[in-house]
Amino acid sequence: MVQVLKDLNIEFIAANPASSFEGLQESIVNYGKAPNTMPELITALHEESAVDMAHGYAKCEGAPMAVMLHGTVGLQHASMAIYQAYHDKTPIIIIVGRDDKFFRQEQTANDIAGLTRAFTKWDAQPKSLRDSLAAIQRAYKEAITPPMGPTVIVIDTEFQKEEAGELKIPTYTPPVFETINKKQAKQIAEDLLEANNPRIQVGKLRTPEGIIDAIELAELSGCSVRTAAANLSMSFPERHPQTGNGHDTNYDYVLGLESDGSDVSIQGPNLLSNAENRDLADIGFGFIRDPVIPPRRDLSGRNDITADAQASIPMIIEQYKRLQTKEALEIVSVRAMQHATTNTENYQKELKNTLEKKRKGWSSSPVSLARLYSELWPLIRELDWCLSSPTVFSSRHHVGLWDHNKPYSYLGMHGAGGIGYCIGASAGAGLAAKDRDRIVINIQCDGDLNYTPGSLWTAAHHKLPLLTIMHNNRGYHQEVMYLHYMAGVRGRGSDRMHIGTTLREPFIDYAKLAEAYGVQSEGPIEDPEKLAAAYKRGIKTVLSGEPYLIDVITEPR
To answer: What pTM value is reported for the model?
Structure first.
């Protein structure tokens, strides 16, 4: 089983140890010339955190890591995190141990995978060791094939402990991604060549390799590009010279590459791995519906093609190169230069406006969230960084200020909005960053951290380059706002809206919490003038390969 995982290039497997997968765990840490590598066992203090780690890792790398869970109870602990990964269409391989002999009544079941079948892409409970190997391969293949998602294999302890003998590992057949055909690729290439002002709108591709191809296509055609990089991972570089509205917004041909399904501005085809009319029943996605897409109003000229954009881009590039003339090269060169000049000028204007807006409350205490982000940016802009945390609760001040140029620059929101995701996903991003000279920035909400703080220990134990900055507003401020509104509607006053919504009496000392888990820390910081120096200390520590936490007392939102 471990060799199968190695052959699939599974880099890490996270687990909270349990008797139902002791056979597999022992093999992971002892098998092979370099034991406990590919996959390396990562110790999680909670099953939910283990899945969140895999979620954050996959968003960074465009590839799954694995998770081991214990029977019924471990899978139930992890179910919320699995649900989030399902909604985020994130590939994760989940291996669930099953033991009929140990805790027979309480912690096993005939159909353990049924607990999460409604929000996993595929599951299996193999009946032999040979079938277990094939099931792991199938789980990987299903997870990475659009629509991507978490997959589950339930493996009995007896198969984990069985002697393999002469058993051969089944041949793995990689997935075949649905692409456009040669005629469609040629037509798209011709349309890009003939257009006076073409544009490409890039949504979320599968892997970093897809981004490289998208850049090549954009540069070949000299078109302007719209990206989603400030909102999610695996999109086009935000500060590429051709990213922006360009010198002319009267586009005569717009190509969509996994672009938002509600976008009405696409005039050419939109290549979508997950077209609205796909048959969910055939891929076993269960009974939970996809997020509702608003009804389209005017889609004249819109042509959605059910095809994987990433796999189709090389076909378009090939056809474009065959059709391109010397005259077309000159036109493309001029057009790209015009776009670059205009986009640079527009960016400078927007940046100036952004900085002016962030000056409001600059010297106030508690610390303004605008300053929390702004003071950090000059210190990391030359580094290879990843912003791992959802930012809607800290007002998204990275947008318009930070440059989202890597596939993993910003990992986006947390799928279904479940609280407790942030620190686990950030640890997963830290795993991806660990041997890649990258650091991870986690703007951590205080309420969220209290769900699963054990991931701090994982970060310390595995020496993850993770800088956690507490957005410590000492409460659940969204709920505070809701209660203020409700009290106002009912005319009851708002002097008691802190009850049940704030974290006071006593305040929580997050620096001491981090210290207890082995993470270097400081704070709480209330004086904004002390922020930059704290950031420098934190970054220095993280660059040395150790996590660091800075507790900052912040404005509410």
So the answer is: 0.94
